[in-house]
Amino acid sequence: MTESSAQTVTVRTVSGQELSYPWATSIRVDRQGNLRVMRGVRQRAFHPCAEWASYTVENLRCGPLKP
After folding, report:
1. Residue 67 placed within a domain
2. What's the number of domains the chain is made of?
3. Which of 18, 51, 52, 66 lies 20 to 30 Å from 31, alpha-carbon distance?
4. Domain membership of residue 25 as a residue range
5. Tens digits of per-residue pLDDT, 1-34?
6. Domain-located, residue 1
């Protein structure tokens, strides 16, 4: 199995723009629907509820499993 510490969070805005955060370690969505992209314990990007439509997390820490 191949391992790395890479993980990418991609946020799609309501206008269709895709913003990529390859350094993200976690994401948080609060009760109001605001999205926060975190690096460690610090907030590094903020998207108000009305601004973002969806997000995806691509975890590249582990490669494909071999039988």
Report:
1. no
2. 1
3. 18
4. 7-59
5. 344 456 789 999 999 999 999 999 889 999 999 9
6. no
